[in-house]
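Form 12-C: Joint structure prediction
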Amino acid sequence: MAASHGAGQPQNDGCRSLSLSGHVGVDSLPEQLVNKSIKQGFCFNILCIGETGIGKSTLIDSLFNTSFDDPVSTHFQPNVRLRAQTYELQESNVRLKLTIVSTVGFGDQIKKEESYQPIVDYIDAQFEAYLQEELKIKRSLHSYHDTRIHVCLYFISPTGHSLKSLDLLTMKSLDSKVNIIPIIGKADSVSKTELQKFKVKLMSELVSNGVQIYQFPTDDETVSEINAIMNGHLPFAVVGSTEEVKVENKMVKARQYPWGIVQVEDENHCDFVKLREMLICTNMEDLREQTHAQHYELYRRCRLEEMGFRDTGPENKPVSLQEAYEAKRHEFYIEMQRKEEEMRQVFVQRVKEKEAILKEAEQEIQAKFEHLKRLHQEERLKLEKNRRVLEDEMAMFIKKKAAAELLQTQALVSTPVNFKKDKDRKNFT
Amino acid sequence: MFKGPVESKNEAAMSELVPEPRQKPAVPMKPMGINANLLGYIGIDTIIEQMRKKTMKTGFDFNIMVVGQSGLGKSTLVNTLFKSQVSRKSSGWNREEKIPKTVEIKAIGHVIEEGGVKMKLTVIDTPGFGDQINNENCWEPIEKYINEQYEKFLKEEVNIARKKRIPDTRVHCCLYFISPTGHSLRPLDLEFMKHLSKVVNIIPVIAKADTMTLEEKTEFKQRVRKELEVNGIEFYPQKEFDEDLEDKTENDKIRESMPFAVVGSDKEYQVNGKRVLGRKTPWGIIEVENLTHCEFALLRDFVIRTHLQDLKEVTHNIHYETYRAKRLNDNGGLPPMTVETEENHESNL
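Section 2 - Result
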């Protein structure tokens, strides 16, 4: 996107207009710029919103003359999702990275209040990714693959009556975020007179509800006329087809019915050619520029304000974003340090507590040990005492025994008659 | 022959189903690029024309700085480059004005229109450079000026409500005039280029080349290139920024013939029935745009006709980004409000 920066509006204040006395070569500048852009390649991202079966994939296939082969979806999706696919197309020396994002399951749910939210979130996510890249310290913006949605093709059902409330709700939530081009899908089901009335009704509804749709720019003289005419044809009634039918010896993209053939590229049959002309051949660059200069800037502004940055400080003095950024960073750093300190304190506290508990337990165990030791000691003393008593008794017994034996031997020698009686008597004493 | 659709059929399953992001928008994964073959003309290549028209409407900015000792023919050369009276000299500068005591920076803006293309050209002159007896640090005011322009741009870019087109005053190209001594580079030349080659695109030119013979010119150029290489000075086009083989071969050729030995003149003479810009000497007329006489035409084509956009892009994508990264990383030089908050927080603890 080399065109967006650096090329300032030449101001004639204070600058003299020079008259050249020869060929300088300044006229080669657009060529140089274009060559650089060609080398880099281009990006274009289209978002298709519409009910299941309204012909989104077919239209994209017809627009880009190729078969992208999207799988057909069912009507039973639980909620709205988005499917994104990127293709690399090349025409002569121009390489285009085309991303098609389609809604899946839009309008199929019974409760549709949340239907538009995933779409808004997706668009915001692309802006956010770009903003994050832009805010990085070390960034590579010029090789960044831009995924921001450049145009939103909103498919309106060809009921012939008016906009559905879901359509209004969705478009209203998207009009400040993306360039919306409303189109009537499957327009071959609306007759010519009905179509005119339908278009008028749709446009008036959009206007009365304050929906900002994309206006083809009319400031460049070369395209202002055709753009103004096209603005009057909105919403484009389109028919898409990838099948070819033979009409007057030529194979054309068309839809064959029993009553006739609807030719996609016939301007009397539908506005397909107008759409292709406007979208690709005339205004692709403008769509990209609007996305970057208007929608993205708005998103960025809101987001930065949300993050707490201001262009003017508390005393209404201009504060640069960078200073605010630095101040915030510093704030966060201080906060982080404070939290760290807090955590550290808590940790120390816990450790102390644990230590105290352990110490108590240790002391308890020590006390128990002492107690047991004491008991043991007492037991031992008691046993000692008993032993001594026992030993004393034993000694006494032995003494008595010895004395008795002595008496016995003496008695045997002197009186053998009273031997038994005495022995019995002695045995019993 | 269509390989495209068959491949995409197998890869259709690869199409990313974007996860539903809730409160905080999640960054979705990048979908795969699938090459699709086109079955007919669509008109994608008209984007070139669209882009060209837009740029012609908005116009271009170009800021060129000339640095060199006085009397080397800077003003004349710039006038010759842009075929008009752009220099300071012609905007009211008086030849009798004293050489300033310090290096001054004078920027003068002009609008050039050619072939429907409008260019706002700013020529930044640096009178006083290298003219004192003591030339210590005389590149500092220049470095300061260049950084100030980056700072100005950064401030604008970082605003919340920013301008649609930020005015670009950054120096895209610095022509450094080397004195044609025929020997080697002066210490001042080396010092200047060493300091500034990392901040801005420097294109060294050998001034007043009509004082050297062809052999002297070639030898001098070789010596200068060698000295620059030995000192690690990369002049524009820098080898490290060559994007592809094509760029490299083209730029290698240019690098081999730099520094261009130039002669400038704003006077016209009749040579062979044609009016040409030249310098009249007793021994002949030196034609400025004659490639056998001097390399002015090479310099002009190089700076204006082929590499002007690239000069701007290298300045924006590389030098400016380097400045920005350094600036955002530096914590130094913060205003007092941050010191206060630090104190407040400490007291809270």
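Section 3 - Comments
The two ends of chain A are 133 Å apart (CA to CA). Chain A is about 50% helix and 15% strand.
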